[in-house]
Structures are given as C-alpha cells and as structure tokens.
Design goal:
The chain is of the alpha/beta class. About 35% of the residues lie in helices and about 20% in strands. It contains 12 helices and 13 strands. It has an 8-stranded mixed beta sheet with strand order 7-8-9-3-10-11-13-12, sandwiched between helices. Strands 1, 2, 4, 5 and 6 form a 5-stranded antiparallel beta sheet that branches. Strand 12 and strand 13 form a beta hairpin. The chain is globular.
C-alpha cells in the first residue's frame, strides 16, 4: 500500500551564481510537490530553469552555483543542510534522472552492460553474475533489440534511441521511487521520440513510480502529465492539473505558450510567437519576470514580483491580473 507522503517536497528553492551572490537568482523561491505515482510536467522556454531545478533536486549543481531552500524532502527525508554523502545515498535508489543527451551521459569507453551492472552492484548489492542477469532483464524491459548482444556493445555502436533506452535502464536499475526525465526525447527523430515517451509512460504505469517530465512539447504534457508546472525565468508562473492548464490557463505566459502551438487545421499563416526572450541571470527585471514581454503589464507588475497564490484549491498562479488586480485592457 502506498504512503500518502509526498515523494518529493520542495519549499523555497533558490539558486544563485556563487561568484555573484547579490545578483538576481537563477531559480527564485520555487516550491513543488510530487505525490506517489504522479506525473508532473514542467514546461517553459529554454533558459527558464527547468534543468537547473532537476539538478538541484538531485544535488548535482556545479560548484559555480549556490543553493538555498527551506526544504527538499525525498520520501519524507529532508536533505537540506545534509552532507553530500546523504544526497548520494538517495540518488539511484530513491530518485534517479535521465539526462538530455545520452551520448554525453554514458561513458564512451565502458560497455553498456558494465555501466548498468555498476549501479546494480553499488545500489542493489548484487554479485557479478546476478547483476549481469538483472542488466539483461532491464534491457529487455526497455525494449532494446537483441539485448543479450547489446550488453557487450559500446555507446557509439547504438543509435540515439537505443542509447536513451540504456539511460532509462540505468535510471531504473535500483528501483527508484522518483524518476526525473529531462527532455528525454531531445535530438531524436519524431518516430523514436514517440517510442521513448510511450516507453516511459508504460514503465510509470507498470511500476507506479512518480515521474517529473521536463519538456518543451505541450502535446506530450497533454498526453502524459497529471499536473503541470510552468516555469519562466526561474520563477513559478502557474501550477495546475493538466486539464486546467489547457482549458483555463490563468497566467499570460501560459496563454502565449499555448497560442504558439502549431495547428495543422488552421490556415492563419504565420505561427504565433512571443516577442523578446527569457532574461539572463544578470538581467532579471525587479518585478514580474515576464512583465517586459507581457501585453497586460502595468506599473504594479514592474514594482515587485507577485506571489504564487491559489485561484482555486488546485490551481496556483503568480500574476496580479489573474486575481483581478489589473485592468483587462492591454497597454
């Protein structure tokens, strides 16, 4: 029977450049929850902080960055203030991550089987022969063709989709409770993308693990996610059930993201775009970080960053307009 305790609970996560602690934060006061068996989708443009959030949760930030948080609890165990060894003890067995580019994540001079077996021996305590059998079983589980022969292959001998399947096998090796997939279909052709996403969805349903899926593709989010977090420039813009995000988005950024989805049935000509770009860490505006690109901005938007508040019990937004505190007319 599953526990009601959140698999992941993050409160007040802030990440800054270590060499410039007085500059704007890369992640600013981010909070999130992931329940047992839940799929949380995280979306936003490049530079919004999605991968940085994943690395923070995993305790894998580079030394150039500093992290502060009130709480980062994995299966009820708060890791804030704990030594690196405590984070390492939870990686693999409680939480695991699939990185964007499998070719740079896999060791190019180690055979595939060896890389999977290493996790099984370190995290599962298995012997050499048992870890070999288990590695073969994992390759079968992720539907690698000819899995027995692939155990002795090197990463460069596999296609991009096969390498990503190996990364999934490694992530699942120690049976984690939380899996973070950081754009797992990046750089793959559309057919292989669909196969990888179907595989992840099937494994999640089969094992009951919790999944954080980071992606640019809102179509994928619509199919897989239970809830959606929209990030913009390191701040939470909106969090809601997936149906609410698509049917009644409350934040202007979410609205323009949805408007930018291509519609093959439409003959409107040019695709919708969002003027401007995501600000860098050294150029964050003092108020709402989306204000410079927002059609509804007013002076209050530029004065101070809005808090993330609930418009409904399960729908949170950081926008003054969503609460009727700004006029509807565009500036």
């Amino acid at each position: 029977m599953q526990s009601n305790t959140d698999i992941l609970a993050v409160d007040g996560l802030t990440v800054r450049l270590a060499a410039h602690p007085d500059t704007s934060s890369i992640l600013d006061d981010v909070s999130l929850r992931v329940a047992p068996g839940e799929v949380l989708g995280i979306v936003g443009e490049s530079g919004s902080g999605k991968s940085m959030l994943a690395l923070s949760v995993m305790g894998l930030l580079p030394p150039a960055l500093t992290m502060n948080a009130r709480r980062i609890a994995v299966d009820g165990n708060d890791l804030v203030g704990q030594p690196r060894e405590a984070w390492r003890a939870h990686r693999g067995c409680d939480m695991a991550m699939i990185f964007q580019e499998p070719m740079t994540s896999l060791n190019p001079v180690m055979r595939i089987g060896t890389q999977i077996e290493e996790v099984l021996r370190w995290r599962g305590g298995l012997g050499r022969s048992e870890s070999r059998r288990r590695a073969l079983s994992l390759l079968e589980q992720v539907e690698i063709p000819s899995p027995a022969s692939r155990l002795d292959s090197y990463p460069h001998e596999l296609s991009g989709g096969q390498r990503q399947r190996v990364m999934i096998a490694i992530a699942l090796a120690a049976s984690p409770k939380l899996l973070i997939a950081d754009e797992p279909s990046t750089a793959l052709d559309v057919t292989v993308q669909a196969q990888i996403l179907d595989l992840l969805r099937g494994l999640q349903r089969q094992t009951g693990l919790s999944l954080i899926l980071i992606t640019h593709d809102l179509g994928v989010i619509a199919e897989i996610a239970d809830r959606v977090m929209v990030l913009y420039a390191g701040r939470v813009a909106e969090v809601a059930p997936v149906r609410t995000i698509f049917d009644a988005p409350a934040h202007p950024y979410t609205q323009v993201l949805l408007a930018a989805i291509p519609d093959i049935a439409s003959r409107r000509g040019r695709l919708a775009t969002i003027p401007g770009s995501v600000p860098g860490a050294m150029d964050m505006p003092p108020g709402c970080r989306f204000a410079p690109r927002c059609l509804y901005r007013r002076p209050p938007c530029e004065a101070a960053p809005p808090d993330v508040r609930n418009v409904r019990r399960d729908h949170a937004v950081s926008c003054l307009r969503a609460f009727g505190e700004l006029p509807e007319a565009a500036e």
